[in-house]
Request: fold
Amino acid sequence: MKVEALTWLVLFLPLLAAGIITLFTLRNKAVSATLSIGAIVTGFVLTLAVIKFGGWDARELSVNWLSIGSLNVDFGLKLDALSLMMLLIVTGVGSAIHIYSYGYMRDDPGFSRFFACMSLFTFSMLGIVLANNFLQMFIFWELVGVSSYLLIGFWFEKPSAADAAKKAFITNRLGDLGFILGILIIFTALGSLNFTVLESGNSIAALGGMATLGGLLVFCGAIGKSAQFPLHVWLPDAMEGPTPVSALIHAATMVAAGVYMLCRVFFIFTPDALTVISWIGGITALLAALIAVQQNDIKRILAYSTLSQLGYMVMGVGLTAPEAGMFHLTTHAFFKALLFLGAGSVIIALHHEQDIWKMGGLRKKMPVTFWTFMVGTLALAGVWPLSGFFSKDAILAAAHENNLLLFILGVAVAALTTFYMFRLVFVAFLGDRRTGVAPVSDSKEAAQAGDESMRQARRLSYEPHESPGVVIWPLRILAVASVVGGVIGIEALFGGMFKPDAAHPHGLLAQLVYPFQHAPVAALSGLAAFAVGLFAAWKLYANAKTDPLPDKLGALSRAMANRFYFDEIYEATVIRIHDAIAAIADWIDRWIIEGFCIGLVRGGTDLTGRALRLVQTGNLQTYAFLFVLGVAVVLWFVLGK
Amino acid sequence: MNVSYLELLKLAAPETIVVLTALAALVVDLTSTRDLEARFRFIINGMIACAGCVAAIVWMLVMPAHANALEGMFVVDPLTQVVKIALLGLTLFTVLISMDSTFTEHIGEYLALILLAAVGMMFLVSAEDILMIFISLELTSLSLYILAAFNKRDVNSAEAALKYFLFGGMAAAFTLFGLSLLYGLSGATNLGQIAAALEDKGLDPLLIVAMVMIVLGFGFKVAAVPFHLWAPDAYQGAPTPSAAFIASGSKVASFFIFAKVMMIGFTGGETNGVHEIAGSAAWQQFVSGWTPVVAVVAVLSMLLGNLVAIVQSSVKRLIAYSAIAHAGYMLIGVMAHSGEAVASLVYYAVTYGLTTIGAFGVVAVVEARSKDDQLASFAGLSRRAPVVSLCMMIFMLSLAGIPPLAGFFGKFYVFAAALKTGAPNLGLLWLVILAIAMSAVSFYYYLQVLKQIYVADMPAGAEELRVPVLGQVVLGLIAVGVILLGCAPNLLVGVLQASIKAAGL
Reply:
């Protein structure tokens, strides 16, 4: 047996865990958690073994799953640098998050259900990563949709969580419709769904005039899953789920699936399609960064930051640099999971307080959380030599080479990124403590009377303290990954796959200085953007008690705080129209179809059924007579003609 | 004619093993276990029966054979092997779901009869000679008549068996009449020779009569309208495991031999073992001869089965009518008469048989506790026996044809094969459309069962149903099989297609 066969185990262990937990161990928390964590950690170890003994070379394992005439669908695993690295991210970061969840969800009544859903999600995600054909990818794509629905709506008794889950699912379905149409176009034109076959078959030429359309339809799937403009609205709302879910789904894995898919099928995109992709990515990056500047909920800031970084990745792919997009995806998985888990640590310490203006001074109370969060922030802001610097620089360098406008946009987003992240750090971790001391006589605080004052009182009565080991160890591990992620050869790995001819840096020193030699303008602009953003944040928010920006920016600030009114616009247009169509359809269904057609058919069917039943008298003579009559009728029918 | 009996015995080893097992079960029960408690007797002798089935299956897996003994009397090729393995599998499950029954003290006899019926089916599958076909049919049928009557204390069981027997006798007479006409026309009993002899004769009325009579005989076996009248009464009255066996194993074997007779006997231009299906003008004549007959029967079955099932209140009758409807769908596969169609037909029949055994198994569980099989007795079952309910849901949804369960792919393959055969002029399209429309109707009554199980309130005072672990495991295994064959249909279809190629059909 070859070592690759272990990948089957990596894929199916989480499913097995999910199945066992659902069927048997719902009442036993410890066993459930052990199964779920065990499955993903084993997956991580097995992936390492596959890479250690099998290397990064491209290879495929498959079994014939379905053959209908000319359509042959395999159920297969495609292993190459892209999928193996992604496998490491999903199982590695996933392991950290699973372990963290054990601490975070400890007191939740749905503990076992949570781990069952997490394992199901892991299975689906691994399926996308390993798929060797479009159909299989689409099936797992939908499974990811379902399992994320379960996880976002985990606290389904909260209406906001239930709504967010629905919103995420439905918005994703919109993109998926495009995705499946794209797959159908590709299959009709090329007669195969297998990635290897498609790649070797020069698919763009074979698709002809449909190439751009097909590519863009496939991209629709990524727009939905990776929350790109204009389908980005679901991601911030999805923060209603438990924080580990936000870390797993909305940082490291699910939203990355869209970018991963773009890289996997990069060969089907025409230059025109790539231009559209890069602009969608750029617009998303800018919009989300602007919105993040005026959010007050710690998880929402991180959510918009995720959106913005995903925009970067998509932009990178669109700028014909999928290796840069994947590189950023990898490092982003490390530091964004770290940031989310850090935010979760803060949130538990503050008994589910998420407003950064009610935090403050946490640095001393929660040193580990603070320092690891700081590492994540610096990595995200792109400080040399942390991982984020290298990956962001790769995208900026690609933009500098191909599209100056997008380059400027990218640098601006980099400055904004630093600005909103340090706003978060200054307000939440530094400065004076705004909870646990005397009530703040702030106008905003004073307005919150009633039951809010009860919560306030409760919140005042405790000291925030550092989280337990099961929570902070994953933070430490992820912090290390965020620091070194840029210089451990990931870039060369992806580069070697997508652009085997170009030179890629090897060795620690070469990697450390590579950006400055390769594209000095991009590297220096990135660092300058960091400096600008840091300076602005320090100027405005060091020791700030309230947010000074609304006074300075006025309407623009309000628009940012209200997410540029996207939800309102959708509410007024798409949803309104949809409601109208639904009302009409409901009327037709109720009166014409149900009342008239169904009524008639049902009545007719029922009557026929009753009439025919009379034939079944139970009387043998009647049966014999009918039998012979049947023979006679059939004979007459055949001979009489 | 030189016959090496040792060779023959080796070819027929699986059948021999099953016969010996039947005798062993009889002897063991008569001599050693008679004084034990009924439950233990069932377990001991059931295990013997299962061991026999498994041994025969293993023999066929280990010793693949390909031979044609005595000019078509006994044909062994990869395809018949696969079908026989499936039949033995169904027999095995039938034995397993009967373990919990209390309807009889004649346990050895009961198991022996099941095994003998299985032997009849195995010979039927291997026969390519009309004499052998008739004899095997009779062996199967007689065993099944007795199985239907096995609950001596229940007057319904006796009535069911009597109806089944008298009706079966009549059908057998017609079949024999048809076969003798065929012999008279061709002067041969071997299917291949019959086809060769008929090639130049054209489609004369006498041949049509022969065809109608044969279709009718098989129509009775598969319970197709208008020869279905026995089925609802027999399914309802017979002991549940017997009904399960009648509905599954018997159906698989009958459909297989039906397709074989139609495809080999009436193809024309066939020379021993090698078949030229398409392109022969004579074949076209015969196709126009028998397809209309089958089409009429298929349409009637689909319509009547589905419509009458809607108004049933007894679950066993409901399954009986749904079986009639399923026979209609499967007849479409017979009409498609291509290698692919046979593969899809066997896949359909096997998965259908498996699902039906499971469904009857659940009915048996409920029936044993609430003394009847009315829909109302299933009310709130999900809270009284969750595992069994889950299995029933899988069976019902598979019968209704919901992906990714086996029932969906069965329908899919049969319909696809039918469309492909008639591809140039879409000759069978209207049948497929009707079948799909009728499948939609069938959802109503399948969901009706599930509604009782999952939605309806528990009757007051109902307690948790205690289902034996063995029963739960068996039902669970069947359910897993249904899911597995649905998720990975190529497991079976691939084997079937390969063996059909190997068998030269």
Q: What stands out?
A: Chain A touches chain B at residues 63-69, 75, 605-606, 608-610, 612-613, 615-616, 618, 620, 623-624, 626-627, 629-631, 633-635, 637-639, 641 (CB under 8 Å). The longest strand of chain A covers residues 59-68.
